[in-house]
Each structure stands twice: as structure tokens, then as C-alpha cells.
Amino acid sequence: MPVSLEQASRPGLLRRLAAIFYDAWLILALWLVGAAVDAAIRSALGGHPGEGTHWLLQLYLLAAPIAFYCGFWTHGGQTLGMRAWRLRVVGPDGGPIGLRQALLRCLAALLSWLALGLGYLWVLFDRDRAAWHDRLSNTWLVMTRKDA
Question: How far is CA 17 from CA 22, 93, 102, 125, 126, in A?
């Protein structure tokens, strides 16, 4: 069900960071599972986990957070951390976002972090409480109701 963006409450910086903190633990768990699988495969093949190239593991470590966020954002608009903090990402019409917008939002969020977090701090100054990645991907983060 689309959200009315004019009536929707927009979250502040601390709520956004709290959701990111929750999600970071889940991504860390995905990374640990991937590293354990990599070590087990290397060991089963007769090698030592610390030797050789790790390009497949490195690719996994990069792809896991992107798949995590894009998967949740395109299927319900919320990660588990966002659900705990009552946040939802929506498109410009207040409805769900597609894969293209989710990928763009991921890349733009990375840009927001790489600029020493300035893209996130922008929420403090923006009249709509939008971060750089909200603007760049044409998506919005809105608050959900407690009963939703």
C-alpha cells in the first residue's frame, strides 16, 4: 500500500544510524558464514585457509551487503533493523522500489559513507530530512506506524 509522502513522518539521523547498527550485525554474520565456508572449502581441497588468492571470498564480501539491502528493500521496503526502528524505504510515489532504485540507493549510500559520513549528516540540514542517497536514488525513508 503506497504511503502519502506529504503526510509521512521522516526519520532523523539517530534512528537511521540505529537501524544501520542493527543491520551491521546481520551483515557481519553473513560475512562470517562466507569466510567459514571459504576456509572449509580450501581445507577440503588440501590447501590452508590463509594461502592463495581470495578473489571469490572478496567478491562475496562485497556482494553480500548489496544483496542483503536490495533484497529487503525490494521485498517489503524494510531490512530487519529498519523494521525494529519502524522505517521503510519507498519510491517517489510512496510505493515499493524496484531493483534498479535499490542498487542506486546502495551505491549512493556508499558514497555518503565515503564522504566521511557527510551524506548521512545531511539529514540534519535538509528540509525533508533526506540523506544524499535518498536524493540521488529518488527514494524516501519514512516512519511506519506501530500497528503496521
Answer: 9, 25, 18, 16, 16
Q: Which grid cell sits at 99?
A: 531493483
Nearest-angstrom CA–CA distance, 84 and 22? 8
Residue 57: how many CB atoms within 10 A of its CB?
18
CA distances from 118 to 73, 112, 126 (A): 23, 6, 12
Task: Write down the residue that cell numbers 572449502 correspond to.
Answer: 41
25-44: per-residue pLDDT in tens?
999 999 999 999 998 888 88
Q: What is the pLDDT of residues 45-96, one digit of tens each?
A: 887 666 667 889 999 999 999 999 999 999 999 999 999 999 999 999 999 9
Comparing CA positions, the residue from 68, 61, 63 lying closest to residue 31 is 61
Predicted TM-score (pTM) of the model is 0.91
